[in-house]
Design brief:
GO terms for molecular function: kinase activity. It holds the Pfam family HipA_2. By secondary structure, the chain is an alpha+beta fold. 36% of the residues lie in helices and 17% in strands. It has 2 domains: 4-99; 105-259, no CATH class. It has a 5-stranded mixed β-barrel. The longest helix has 17 residues, at 227-243. The protein starts with a strand and ends with a helix.
């Protein structure tokens, strides 16, 4: 189960994020990078962050701890920036955050150090599975911390949810954007990564991840009369996408062959 904390202090915005994430302090004295439900594309980004982050962890990849964060908009009462005040007001209630990793640095594919082939392959395979379009050389969304790679920011994953038309059919796509993945040059063990993906992401793991979606994040969607049916649609996509792993792994191998 994910822990739930309450935000007690707004520390600073992270201006590099288009949706204005921020560092906040919580009632457990921890610092977290908070993603706001009132920003950009709303709770769907938080759903992608939650599901992808938890499934990445199940696969054995390093992801900072995710926590639910209760936010009272009064937190921003003294904030001089009107945009931030509006964001806090629009985000009252349950939000999502990840543990802040102090002293971490952004992964640089030029400066290195280079990842091991199996780790790079596991990450490429996983990102192809969740259709993460945002792990590129310009925006790797990975941190070096204590000598290891940590994955952050999965809000651009699972973009099918922004248009549910034909979503199950679209789950079988090859995912051409994998050609731009920052770790593709090192991903020489993609078939072993695919086997790990299918081994670790069992039906029970997928069900637990989807069950964690809070009711209040499930906005009204045409075609889903209830929140249970809405959750079931996420689960169906994850299952169908996993079954399509030979398709997206073949695409990743093809893209890598052209890349190198």
């Amino acid at each position: 189960m994910l822990r739930t904390v309450t935000a007690t202090r707004y520390v600073t915005p992270l201006r590099e994020g288009g949706s204005l994430p921020a560092i906040v302090e919580a009632d457990d004295a921890g610092l977290y990078v908070l993603k706001f439900r009132g920003a950009g594309q709303g709770p769907k980004v938080l759903i992608a962050e939650l599901i992808a982050g938890e499934l990445a962890r199940a696969m054995g990849l390093r992801v900072p701890e995710l926590v639910f964060v209760q936010l009272d908009p009064v937190l921003g009462r003294a904030e001089p920036d009107g945009e931030i005040r509006d964001l806090l007001k629009a985000s009252a209630g349950l939000n999502l955050a990840m543990d802040y990793l102090p002293g971490s640095i952004t992964f640089d594919p030029v400066a290195g150090p280079a990842p091991e082939a199996q780790e790079a392959s596991n990450i490429v395979c996983f990102d192809a599975y969740v259709t993460n379009v945002d792990r590129t050389p310009k925006n790797p969304n990975m941190l070096h911390w204590h000598g290891a790679l940590w994955l952050i920011d999965h809000g651009a994953s699972m973009y099918f949810q922004h248009s549910w038309d034909g979503y199950l059919e679209r789950s079988k796509t090859a995912f051409a954007p994998i050609k731009d993945h920052v770790l593709l040059p090192w991903a020489t063990a993609l078939r072993a990564a695919e086997a790990l993906l299918r081994e670790r992401l069992t039906p029970e793991v997928l069900e637990r991840a989807v069950a964690r979606i809070p009711d209040e994040w499930l906005e009204a969607e045409a075609g889903f009369p209830s929140k249970e049916e809405h959750r079931a649609a996420y689960l169906a996509w994850l299952r169908e996408r996993l079954a399509a792993s030979p398709v997206f792994i073949e695409e990743a191998e093809r893209a890598r062959a052209q890349h190198v």
